[in-house]
Amino acid sequence: MSEHLIIFDTTLRDGEQSPGASMTRDEKVRIAKQLERMRVDIIEAGFPIASPGDFEAVQAVATEVVDSTVCGLARAAEKDIDRAAEALKPAKSARIHTFIATSPIHMQEKLRMSPEQVLERAVWAVKRARQYTDDVEFSPEDAGRSDVDFLCRVLEAVIDAGAGTVNIPDTVGYNLPSRFGRLIGELIERVPNADKAVFSVHCHNDLGLAVANSLAAVQHGARQVECTINGLGERAGNASLEEVVMAVRTRQDVFSCDTRIDTTQIVPASRIVSNITGFPVQPNKAIVGVNAFAHESGIHQDGVIKKRETYEIMRAEDVGWSANRMVLGKHSGRNAFKTRLAQLGIDFRSEEELNSAFSRFKDLADKKHEIFDEDLQALVTEEGLAQENDYVRLVSLKVCSQTGETPTADLTVSVDDAERRASADGGGPVDAAFKAIEKVVESGGELLLYSVSNITTGTDSQGEVTVRLQRGGRIVNGHGADTDIVVASAKAYVNALNKLLVPHERAHPQTSQPI
Ligand code: KIV
Ligand code: ZN
Question: In the chain, how many domains are there?
Answer without folding.
Answer: 4
